[in-house]
Amino acid sequence: MKVLLIGANGQIGKHVVDLLQNSTEHTLRAMVRKEDQAETLKKSGVEAVVANLEGSVDEIAEAASGCDAVIFTAGSGGSTGADKTLLVDLDGAIKSIEAAEKAGANRFVIVSAFQAHNRYSWADNPIKPYMVAKHYADKALEASDLTYTIIRPGGLLNEAGTGKISAAENIKSGSIPREDVAKVVVESLNEEKTHNRSFDLMSGETSISDALKNI
């Protein structure tokens, strides 16, 4: 499967790059927003394209041309304001969904946010604009014609992954290494049990492959 990774320079995206670069099942095209980021990826043997989520749908669709799937791990980052959250996490995600449809990349995996589907869980959250953006981006993906997977990880950690997770429609609380989120993203590409499904994700006691088969 030829995969366009949107957000390849992010913390989860970099783990996904490593996994796809070494995959025997998939080939990678990494999308970044700066030329120097693309050059760095190219030097390590990664096919890279430059496109901006604040640009046009056509620009993103061109980046996705010839791809079978899109992975969206992009985000505006914690240091930006609500304006960038709106432009990247909401509108950028929706434009990417439209671009995937236009390019014929029918598989779409998105990294959302923990409990983004449940408004009551984040009614008083200090990052409520971010949660709202994720909520409606996920809604747009569900309403599309794409075969989707929506992954809602809990607190993100930079420690080494364990390869053990808990994945379910609703999980109370928890955290997970970014490395394990990336592994779940990549394994979801071919796991049919994750097709047209959304789930919360935390560290747990079950192997990633087994957990995804029992979503």
TrEMBL record:
InterPro entries: NAD(P)-bd_dom, NAD(P)-bd_dom_sf. Residues 7-191 form the NAD(P)-binding domain. SUPFAM superfamilies: NAD(P)-binding Rossmann-fold domains. Pfam families: NAD_binding_10. This is Sugar epimerase. It comes from Virgibacillus profundi. The lineage of its organism: Bacteria, Bacillati, Bacillota, Bacilli, Bacillales.
